[in-house]
TrEMBL record, chains A, B:
It comes from Oceanihabitans sediminis. Residues 122-247 form the DUF2520 domain. It holds the Pfam family DUF2520. Residues 4-85 form the Pyrroline-5-carboxylate reductase catalytic N-terminal domain. SUPFAM superfamilies: 6-phosphogluconate dehydrogenase C-terminal domain-like, NAD(P)-binding Rossmann-fold domains. This is DUF2520 domain-containing protein.
Length: 253, 253
């Protein structure tokens, strides 16, 4: 059994709490949040507290708090030499106060409020400064909630976090632009969904380099000109031009 | 039974031929291509020809040829007042010679060489100038290969074709950029695949507008600054800046 103390009450903390509770291998010994109201509904299931000085002993302390709070809260923890990890993609492991054994437990996925999260679909990036000593338990914790643990150093985690902005936020904005384009003629955005899914699925078989098709890759100037002419929104046109340039640079055109 | 004559031998023509053959409701009476060699392997299954003057009678003539060839080949067809359709996303239905009954049969999907195509996952955009008369058989043809037909006018089809460049080619290039970013630190691009799939899947529940998250949407200036600093490739940085601007414009930030 892994004994955990959870700190924070945002999306990540709440989803982790639920996953730990469901797992037979993890006990959440205590749940801390500065504002008790937020976690009050859980008080019959788990000991809750808003007092850092009352934290109990555990195998792992998980700081699922905002990026900016990692350093401050870790410094305030009233003990030392225990394993303290944060869950952020972009915060350094060294932001955790050096009196602790330090690590990272970063679930790489988009968390939506309300949506139930299937951790078996979420890679868990784990890191520990004393890796020999502390990585095994972080891996065990990831597996206990059905996730696949990946050992990832701080540079790699930062690049995954940045890349995630591209494949999630930016891709989603590309969908949004497509939505605006189809709406401008009353076409049904629904019709694009199989293509959207196939574009993502194709990566099971091919790298994005090999999966590329279309007018930019073919350097089909006639179609590119027609498309540019059809685009009335200046930012959509800029996106068209820039991504066409990017594709052509990638493929040496 | 729907009798079809197929013209052309590219990706779309070949995939359509295979789907028609598999369907119990369609007979390909003839397959035309200027170069007979390309379709020679099929000569024991179907009558092949490279001579337009020898085309037999059929319910539908499908021009699955390059965009530029639609007009020319349709003018050369040695008959009139029969239903002739093209399969292009961007060519006008009026590019087909006016001696024919004219229409469009446009499968909206990315076709990869070699990959087997499941038409049940492909929306078919159908259009006919004499819609009352000619649309029913185009819809029937789409259903015969398991596809869902969508009546789409020329403006809508053009916007779907343009939007498809965004959600397929541009999204795929975003994946490519993410691949380059992760490779720069030796991080494993594989770890991003669940996020890529979830980003596409989320559209089942939410519009792209509502699905948006991340630093641009939150206007998290600290993270945006950190990300820009980490990007060394000038085009990747431009893409970051432009799509951040686009997200912020969409969300009024």
């Amino acid at each position: 059994m892994i004994h955990v103390v959870l700190l924070g009450a945002g999306n990540v903390a709440t989803h982790l709490y639920k996953a730990f509770e469901k797992s037979g291998e993890v006990t959440v010994k205590q749940w801390y949040n500065r504002n008790l109201k937020t976690i009050e509904t859980y008080k019959n299931q788990v000991t809750i507290t808003n007092d850092l000085s009352k934290l109990v002993e555990a195998d792992i302390y998980i700081l699922a708090v905002s990026d900016d709070a990692v350093s401050e809260i870790s410094a305030k923890l009233p003990f030392e030499n225990r394993l303290v990890v944060h869950t952020s993609g972009s915060v350094s492991v060294y932001d955790i106060d050096m009196k602790h054994k330090r690590g990272v437990f970063y679930p790489l996925q988009t968390f939506s409020k309300g949506a139930s999260i299937d951790f078996s679909q979420i890679p868990l990036c784990v890191e520990a400064i004393k890796s020999k000593e502390d990585l095994p338990i972080l891996k065990k914790l990831a597996k206990a909630i059905g996730s696949k643990p990946h050992r990832v150093n701080s540079d790699q985690r930062a690049s995954l976090h940045l890349a995630a902005v591209y494949v999630n936020n930016f891709t989603n904005q590309i969908y949004r632009i497509a939505h605006e384009i189809t709406e401008s003629t009353g076409a049904d955005f629904e019709i694009l969904k199989p293509l959207i899914k196939e574009t993502a699925r194709k990566l099971d078989d091919l790298t994005p380099y090999l999966a590329q098709t279309g007018p930019a890759k073919r350097n089909d100037k006639k179609t590119i000109k027609k498309h540019k002419k059809a685009l009335t929104d200046p930012i959509h046109k800029e996106v068209y031009q820039l991504l066409t340039k990017s594709i052509q640079k990638t493929h040496g055109i």
